[in-house]
Design goal:
By secondary structure, the chain is α+β, with helices and mostly antiparallel strands. The protein contains 22 helices and nine strands. The longest helix is centred in the C-terminal third of the chain and has 25 residues. The termini are far apart. It binds adenosine-5'-triphosphate and magnesium ion. Adenosine-5'-triphosphate binds next to helix 8.
């Protein structure tokens, strides 16, 4: 793809985007693809969500969408955003706007027709490119040359742009980790350090989203090291971060062919003991499922060893495959063995070759052995299960009956 043009881009001419552009980009109004899709297309990276900007005011976007049989959903109407669903593909369509005043992240906006002003409101030069239906790329801020140099640079003065929205601190590092090359822009780094006190004002949901994206970016390891030196990780986590464990997590994931998992990586970076998981949960407003995974990662990973295969099976039985992998990988990242260690590799792959059986005894098995319906019944079941696990999950009836007999006697 030649710099500055997407004339040969097939995705731009494909349904359903082309149909939506056809409807919005006519009759006195203009529509363009903006932001990440243009950036990624020029870089040859996979394109995620496609966002559009248009001169048409939101009510006109809604009118045209309805008239064509698309489904408009006013997802951010205060900011001029309508999500238009075309053949079950959602597109965010945002009317051009110009800031009137800015108070932190709450910008007072007026609708406009000025593409340059829209570009100027965006965060980084590489995020401010727009692309017309015919593939012409418009660059008002030097975004194409920064993209070619893979340089993440604030539009305008970094300190001012950060003061408008402190989330841009995190976005600066996130985009560099994803698309940057070489050193971070020094002016940007200085401004992020100077503005780091503003991180506390951010909504925890926004921080969570940016951070989880950062953790799976290809160059996250050196970028997090810089953030740590800059005092930013301490501000975000309120505790210690374990950079070596984080770096190892990427390696062990690759060694077993596991996908990049942001929660696993967050555990490697921020969780040593269960208390760390609780703190991150509160500070980042993690989901319940994320919280539970982190708690499980912090719970005794130091006892996991690849030397004892039977203990591995017992762990897999107790935790289930997902938690088991979380626990084993975090232990592996903190062991002295490297990512090529065959014993750790075998342990991490255990769920692929062994499925935990279901405990074969039920309450009825103890009632018929004379145990009363009382706390003793629960105890007998628990004792029997522990004995069955310790015996490495015997399946034959005689062994299971012997375990039940012993547990029933108390
Ligand atoms: P991703 O692939 O991660 O979604 P993206 O560039 O699409 O990358 P989004 O967070 O989806 O990133 O934002 C879409 C666009 O909106 C950005 O490219 C940028 O132009 C603009 N933008 C988003 N957040 C901000 C912000 N906090 N300040 C200024 N501009 C922003
Ligand atoms: Mg996006």
């Amino acid at each position: 793809m030649s710099a500055g043009s997407l004339r040969d881009a097939a995705w731009l001419r494909e349904e359903p985007l082309a149909r939506l552009m056809g409807v919005l980009d006519r009759d006195g109004e203009e529509a363009r693809v903006v932001g990440g899709a243009v950036r990624n297309a020029l870089l040859g990276e996979p394109i995620g969500d496609v966002d559009l900007a248009t001169t048409a005011p939101p009510d006109e976007v809604i009118r045209r969408a309805k008239a064509t049989g698309f489904k408009p959903v006013p997802t951010g109407i205060d900011h001029g955003t309508v999500t238009v669903v075309v053949d079950s593909h959602p597109f965010e369509v945002t009317t051009l706007r110009q800031d009137v005043e800015t108070f932190g992240r709450h910008a007072k906006v007026a609708f406009g027709r000025d593409w340059k002003a829209d570009a100027g409101r965006r965060d980084f030069t590489m995020n401010a490119l727009s692309c017309s239906a015919d593939g012409t790329v418009h660059d008002y801020v030097g975004g194409i040359s920064d993209l070619e140099a893979r340089r993440v640079r604030f539009i305008g003065r970094a300190d001012q742009r950060i003061a408008e929205d402190y989330l841009r601190i995190l976005r600066f590092f996130r985009f560099h980790a994803a698309y940057g090359r070489g050193e971070l822009d020094p002016e940007g780094v200085r401004a992020c350090i100077a503005g780091r006190g503003g991180l506390d004002q951010l909504s925890r949901e926004r921080v969570r989203m940016e951070l989880l994206k950062l953790l799976i970016a290809p160059h996250a390891v050196p970028v997090l090291a810089t953030m740590s030196e800059a005092g930013l990780l301490l501000s975000l986590f309120g505790g210690v971060s374990h950079l070596a464990s984080f770096a190892n997590m990427g390696k062990v994931e690759a060694a077993i062919g596991a996908p990049n998992d942001p929660v696993q990586r967050l555990g490697a970076l921020g969780v040593w003991v269960v208390e760390d998981a609780e703190r991150l949960w509160r500070r980042l407003r993690l989901t319940n499922a994320e919280h539970e995974r982190l708690v499980s990662m912090g719970d005794g990973w130091w006892r996991v060893s690849p030397a004892d295969e039977q203990a591995g099976r017992a762990l897999l039985y107790r935790l289930g495959p997902e938690r088991f992998l979380d626990r084993v990988l975090i232990a592996w990242t903190r062991s002295p063995s490297g990512d090529r260690d065959p014993a750790w590799h075998d342990l991490a792959m255990l769920p692929a070759r062994w499925v935990a059986p279901v405990f074969p005894l039920k309450a009825a098995d103890f009632l018929k052995r004379g145990v009363e319906k009382s706390p003793a019944l629960g105890k007998a079941l628990r004792d029997a299960e522990a004995a069955w696990i310790a015996a490495d999950f015997p399946a034959d009836d005689i062994a299971v009956a012997a375990i039940a007999d012993a547990a029933a006697k108390g």
